[in-house]
Amino acid sequence: MKTAFCTISTNSHLFKVDALFASLKEVGCSSELVCLATQAGNGSIKNGRLLRPGSIELGLVGEAIKAKHHETSDCLRWSLKPVLIRALLEEYDKVIYLDNDLFFFSLPSFLWSELDSNDILLTPHHYPRNPKENQNWLEANFKVGLYNAGFVGVNRNAKHVMDWWAECCLYRCEKSLIRGLFDDQKYLDLVPVMHGSTKILDHKGCNVAGWNVEVCKRLVDGDGSVSIDGKWPIVFIHFNGFSVRTILHGNDQLLRPHLTQYVNQLRHFKPELQEDDLWKENTLWDRVKLWAWKTLDRLKK
């Protein structure tokens, strides 16, 4: 069985790809590592295989997506996820897509085993869901999506689902509360409904992030390691801007050593990097989302 982890990046963020792929190698991963860069250029990666525009068959839908968006736009990267997965399934038996700001702390070989008996793997956001307080988080499940599009695992039996997802992304890749859309991500809510052989991972050590501090409790085990709910070891953390800020601001303190390890790895490929650089780029959008949710709450009352 040939397996591959893949990601998509602009040239400016290839250093994150290097850190992601280095983390996979350090935990003992033997799968192939593939990155699609959305731009032409001279950038390279130290680990894995780098694809450039024109070096992969995108198909009619992929080419239409590429023509629709600028080469550095977020929407292009997000919309090309199912296109890249679908193309790689012609070469590999199983493919797992990863956002480039993920980082691994233990061997994920069980994920490939899950794809023996399931065609698709998804990870829930595990947003807080208390209807009595902080209801913005409860509602986020329905506005942003139940599953995080930063991780999607697929085998060859689900090629048609990737084709469908790509068509959806070509239709619209936008944030729209009125339409019930959230970029490429909200479409994933339909996947378990339309394809029965979909596994929603119950391993809470996968896709650990700032948004699931409440539901996925961080605990210190007897050996000093951090686990989730005292049951699941941390497999990978999603170090997007929100997660990094949550750790640095003291709201997810047990993951501070993990962030330090991630930053140290990033600095191998970008020595001038500062921790604050990892969260400031997303601050405006986070604030806009919070303002929108609170405003809608006030209008409903």
What does this structure look like?
By secondary structure, the protein is of the alpha/beta class. Helix content is 39%, strand content 20%. The protein is built from twelve helices and 15 strands. It has helices spanning 14-26, 59-68, 74-79, 81-88, 109-117, 135-143, 159-171, 191-194, 241-248, 256-269, 277-280, 283-300; strands spanning 3-9, 32-37, 49-51, 94-98, 102-104, 120-124, 147-155, 175-176, 181-182, 198-200, 206-208, 218-220, 226-228, 232-233, 236-238. The protein has a seven-stranded mixed β-sheet, with helices on both faces. It has a three-stranded mixed β-sheet with strand order 5-15-11. A hairpin with a 3-residue loop joins strand 13 (226-228) and strand 14. Helix 2 (59-68) runs parallel beside helix 7 (159-171). The N and C termini lie far apart (55 Å). 39% of the residues are buried. The mean pLDDT is 93.
Calculate the mean pLDDT score and round it. Answer: 93
Q: Describe the sheet with the most strands.
A: 7 strands, mixed
- Rg for CA atoms: 19 Å
Strand % is 15-25%
What distance separates the N and C termini?
A: 55 Å
Topology:
Elements: E1 3-9, H1 14-26, E2 32-37, E3 49-51, H2 59-68, H3 74-79, H4 81-88, E4 94-98, E5 102-104, H5 109-117, E6 120-124, H6 135-143, E7 147-155, H7 159-171, E8 175-176, E9 181-182, H8 191-194, E10 198-200, E11 206-208, E12 218-220, E13 226-228, E14 232-233, E15 236-238, H9 241-248, H10 256-269, H11 277-280, H12 283-300
Parallel strand pairs: 1-2, 1-4, 2-3, 6-10, 11-15
Antiparallel strand pairs: 4-7, 5-15, 6-7, 8-9, 12-13, 13-14
